[in-house]
Amino acid sequence: MEQNPVGGPSAQGIILRGVGGLYTVWDDVLGREHVLRAKGVFRREGRTPLVGDRVRCTPGEGEAHGWIDDILPRTSACLRPPVANVDQMVLVVAAAPQPDWLLTDRLLIWARRAGIAPLLCVNKADCGDDVPRRMQAQYGAAGLNVLVASARDGRGIPALRQCLAGRISCFAGQSAVGKSSLLNALFGLQLPTGALSQRTARGRHTTRHAQLLRCGDALVVDTPGFSLLELWDTLPPEELCAYYPEYEAQAAQCRFQPCLHDREPGCAVRAAVGDGRLSPDRWARYRDLLREVRAHWRERYD
């Protein structure tokens, strides 16, 4: 190991979790965890270490905590939940209850804006095959394959495990779709799981803070959910279609440029929806989101 400027041994690793100002970092070289504090310089510079950050650090000796000396450049960063360097978002829906299709579209846009590759996964496949068929029909044209799995009977678990290998992945989706149950089935974990409340028809949140789970050669972020509050704040309406790959493929053939793919005459996307090449349900939700984007764009200076 190289020498730290203050004289102690220096190491590199990745932040697994951070609670109460203490960060647990996995040391790549020693293959062990260190409990560290962040140096005051980060606060003065307005920087905060995030779960998933690769860092240079000085491990402590004995019972003493060590220090995070530097945060290495990030490939991606999310503030809600606070995680960095995520490669892939596994967007989980369930065969039952019925998916929140609009939330799925929002999360796909969120992932692409953050530079994170999306992977669609239908859990609870033992409850029926209608949802997987509908997912493929709506998202196949966007180049998204739908992985079908069941945490209960093990269906699709080896294929999903292979998709996670060598990557930092986060799981996202509405409550009660079985995200924690999938992680338990994938890696033999014992994360708490929550059932769907019979009274409110909502899932009980079981994950309280972001943490990075070391699962063989995979790293998985278990999070309490993603905030979409700022999704539209800086998005011009004409750029929304850029997060729909199947629309971008048609856009060059539209009569007007740019085309919002809404009501414009000569719109190639509308034509593709009309003749069945693109999903009419997904386009209807796109138009709903476009109205939201337009409203936010008009009110951005209010």
Would you give an account of this structure?
The strands form 3 sheets. Strands 10-9-8-11-13-12 form a 6-stranded mixed sheet, with helices on both faces. It has 8 helices and 13 strands. It is α/β, with parallel strands linked by helices and 302 residues long. It has 3 domains: 11-73, Nucleic acid-binding proteins (OB fold (Dihydrolipoamide Acetyltransferase, E2P), Beta Barrel), CATH 2.40.50; 79-222, P-loop containing nucleotide triphosphate hydrolases (Rossmann fold, 3-Layer(aba) Sandwich), CATH 3.40.50.300; 237-298, Ribonucleotide Reductase Protein R1, domain 1. Helix 4 (157-164) packs across helix 5. The radius of gyration is 22 Å and the shape is globular.
Brief summary of the model shown:
26% of the residues lie in helices and 24% in strands. It has 302 residues and is an alpha/beta fold.
